[in-house]
Amino acid sequence: MEFKKVLLCTDFSVESEKLVQTLYELKDLGLEEVIVFNVVEIDSAGSNAPSFQKQKKEALKADQRQLEKEGLKVKIDIKIGTPAKDIVKKGEEENVDLILIGSHGKGFIKRILLGSTTFDVIRLSKIPVLVEKYKGVEKDQNRTLIQNKFDKVLLPIDYSSHAMGVLEKVKGMKKIREILLVSAIEYSQTEEELTEARDKLERHLGKIRMDLFNAGFASNYIIKEGTASNNILEVAENEAVNLVILSKRGEGRIKELLIGSTATTVITNSKAPVLIFPSQEV
């Protein structure tokens, strides 16, 4: 899978300014065109919205020139409206392959992508969303927490068509060097049930691993017991993965990764960036 056209969402924060770094990595996945996009929130800007729109458009021209020097086709656009809806609408209108947003690891880009707005973008979008992570608060210190994010990726996996569909997308990302599959046994009444479930997963993941080997990927798998989101965070940190890739739907509680507090826990607490594929994509 290639990300030839990307919608970069900015709010002029230090974090969002650093999203340009991620674009350089995406060039290895076929990136050709970038739309740098900002939404002036009408509810907070009020009658000053047109003035803000003009000022911000001028500010984005520096980003445009920088990216054009890298050989990318670049457009800039600033809308007055409602952030989540306008971000999703813009992505669809431009037929982008990816929506790129940023986080400093404790919360999302201020205002535009804060809290429920961010999850509205993920929930409503039919386009994959990449949430970048940052550390540092000063402009000259702020940098991505994870570089070379496609070197080692974590993919939660179950028996669902959604998870298997995302696996097919991942196999199309030839820049990836290693894929770590994680599956959770969330419930069993007896030791016998647990053993049976583990054996079944061993066979399932073994077949997937062989398929990945034949496709040219190094891979491994880990089977855990307990809540999916907690296991994903634990394995991602212990195994020092560079990127977590999630499907929007799945069997068991993986399907809840994009609902309420579980989504907040996974996306905001993961030290690695998170790439989320909507179920429509699979």
Automatic annotation (TrEMBL):
Residues 3-131, 150-278 form the UspA domain. SUPFAM superfamilies: Adenine nucleotide alpha hydrolases-like. It comes from Isachenkonia alkalipeptolytica. CDD domains: USP-like. This is Universal stress protein. PANTHER family: STRESS RESPONSE PROTEIN NHAX, UNIVERSAL STRESS PROTEIN MJ0577. InterPro entries: Rossmann-like_a/b/a_fold, Universal_stress_UspA, UspA. Belongs to the universal stress protein A family. Pfam families: Usp.
